Amino acid sequence: MSDSDTTIPARRRFLVQGAAAAVGAVAGSARAEEATPPGIPDGMKAPGADVGSQTYGTPSRFEAGLIRNVPKGLKQYTSASSRSPLQDLDGILTPNGLFYERHHGGIPEIDPARHRLLIHGLVERPLVLTMEDIRRFPSESHIHFLECSGNPGFEAIKGKTASDLVGLVSCAEWTGVRLATVLREAGLKPEAQWVVAEGADSAAMTRSIPIAKCLNDALLVYSQNGERLRPQQGYPLRVFLPGFEGNMSVKWLRRLNVSAEPAYSREETSKYTDLMPDGTARQFTFVMEAKSIITRPSGTQRIAPGFHEITGIAWTGRGRIRGVQVTTDGGKTWQDAVLQEPVLNRALTRFRLPWTGDGAPTTIAGRAIDETGYVQPTFEDLTAVRGLKSFYHNNAVVPWRIAADGEVANGYA
Amino acid sequence: MAMREIRLVAAFGLLLGFAGAAGGAERFGIGRPATEAEIAAWNIDIDRDGLKLPPGRGRVAHGREIFAAQCAACHGATGEGGLGERLVGGRGTLASAKPVKTVGSFWPYAPTLFDYIRRAMPMNAPQSLSDDDVYAVSGYVLHLNGLAPEDAVFDARSLAAIRMPNRDGFVPDPRPDVKP
Question: CB-based contact (8 Å) between B21 and chain A?
Fold first, then answer.
């Protein structure tokens, strides 16, 4: 704002400020009446902002509240996460500026001209690739979700909004080269079983990827929703593993070490392993299982009796969503929601169900079914098997309680 | 590369499937060879058996000094945790209602300690410790967990020889594990 204030002529600045003052007065004033038909809105009485007045467009200032959900009061923010505001998003694509974040050593600032990818280990020809090199390979674009494996944990699920509960999931169109293509360029030796990816961040994030995934649908990605990756998403280059836990899609990728064994790095031994009630921990728990959440109506919203479209998102790391069932009576009955086409492989799927509420208190929830027949479990069924201490991979049904006054609240809390 | 060749390569890749083609000879000629020196300078990966641990050695006593100067501010004076993870204790708690996951109670492989400290710690200045210092502070964290005596000296062989208490505590992923 301040930039444009200093660069536009005084007359136009006056117009802009005048318009802002008019808009500010809209709430509950006589001017609001004037702006509704048959009145003439101020924006029709004078030209609006010039073409190119924003060289990188930003949302309307009336949407300034639509921002990432950043937790308050953390001990440190170098290794932390922020969430997508799911309850205020439509469709299936997450705007790049609202994509969830999880960093382990902050966000590095990388000059792509100086960035290199080293491929070594069990390859015939160890290679150094520049970003220009990587963009020369045949490219592909795919729409996929990305989800943090701790979304949320199993204990103290006290969040209020859909974002608080499940905001560590987002979805984008990713463009890059198949990892298989790049590995073929280096030439895999027969003993190659894993590829260990390392990020150029201060965590030197290290995860091991099974070779089958590398040769199937794994991507090396440089663009997201049509533009280059944002720094928060790994600029200038990241791994992308459709359907796998987000941590494995290593950001700021600088090295691929082709190996016979996993690295057994800290992030695949002491972290990202799932502790079971018997004290053993599941390791290499890669797939994100089917999940859904109703985003409207959802926590902190207030609804009046009458018609509402219940809508939300569903996804599965095992392929496509086959269906989403919604209950509006606390789980007694379930109805099939309508899925928005196209239903894409390992992408968010938007579901909708028309509903007329009678104002009585109730609980609503959705449950996803994927193409393998897997059904999203209830929290009770899930924790009966895994206990409360596994932290990762909670894909349980999220219930929303609707009170007599229409207030929607977390059904866990 | 001529357009026709690119199409041929693409068609060949499709025919074989990418898995079949990955080891094959089809190449675009993109990138340059990496030298041994470049690989050695970049590659900091350590395996769980410690076969890739570098030369160098460090005494637990020296590790105590490094820990006090570089680690204690976040991990506590004796690894009890704070801003950073708790590093010590928790043995025997993993199957309880309040499991405490630390290096001593949960980490399966001692060489991973060297790998992680070298690549990512201290958090405000990762990759600033010498290999000798990483051996020393790894040894001190093991000592704090009762896994090494106070006069121990750690190098590639002795670090790899440590058998972590939870080494056999990990199991493969059995999912899908919850039936509707």
Answer: yes
pLDDT for residue A5 is more than 80: no
- Predicted confidence at residue A158, as pLDDT, reads 87
Record the tokens describing residue B65, joined without a space.
Answer: 């000094």
**Which two structure tokens, joined as six digits, stand for A116?**
């290199």
Gap from A166 CA to chain B (nearest CA, Å): 20
Of A370, A377, A372, which is closest to residue A321 (Cα–Cα)?
A370
Give the span between the Cα atoms of A191 and B169, in whole angstroms: 27
Q: Which of A89, A150, A141 is nearest to A348 (CA)?
A: A89
Answer whether residue B120 shows pLDDT above 70: yes
Residue entry with tokens 């972290």 = A271
* Nearest-CA distance B59 → chain A (Å): 23
**Burial profile B138-176: b = 16 or more Cβ within 10 angstroms, e = fewer:** bbbbbbbbebbeeebebbbebbbebebbbeebbeeeebb
How far is residue A130's CA from residue A132's CA, in Å, rounded to a whole number? Answer: 5
pLDDT in tens, A114-141: 999 999 999 999 999 999 999 999 999 9
Residues of B in contact with A385 (CB under 8 A): 177-178
Q: Which of A41-45, A376-380, B7-11 has the lowest mean pLDDT?
A: B7-11
| DSSP code, position A239 | E
Residues A148 and A254 in one domain: yes
Q: How many residues does chain B have?
A: 180
Which residues in chain B are contacts of A381 at CB distance < 8 A?
178-180
Range of the domain at A219: 96-282
Q: Taking the C-alpha atoms of A144, A232, A58 and A311 in order, what is their torsion angle to the nearest 10 degrees?
A: 40
Question: Distance from first CA to last CA of chain A, Å, rounded?
Answer: 41
State how far the Cα of B106 lies from the Cα of B89, in Å rounded to an integer: 10
Count other C-beta atoms under 10 Å from residue A7's C-beta. Answer: 10
Q: Specify the pLDDT at position A38.
A: 75
Q: Which CATH superfamily is domain B57-161 in?
A: Cytochrome c-like domain (1.10.760.10)
Which residue among B33, B116, B177 sits closest to A127, beta carbon to beta carbon?
B33
Report how far residue A350's alpha carbon sits from residue A344's, in angstroms, rounded to the nearest whole number: 10
Which segments of chain B are extended strands (E)? 32-33, 57-59, 153-155, 170-171
Shared domain for A331 and A237, answered yes or no, is no
CB count, 10 Å around CB of A139?
Answer: 17
CB–CB contact A215 B178 (8 Å): no
Q: Where are the domains of chain B?
A: 57-161
How many angstroms separate the CA atoms of A314 and A310, rounded? 13
Residue A83 lies in a domain: no
A216, A266, A284: residue with CB nearest B172: A284
Residue-level pLDDT at A35: 58
B34: nearest CB among A126, A181, A188: A126
Is residue A97 within 8 A of residue A225, CB to CB? The reply is no
DSSP state of A268: G
Put simply, the answer to whether A203 touches B119 (Cβ < 8 Å) is yes
pTM above 0.95, yes or no: no
Assembly ipTM = 0.89
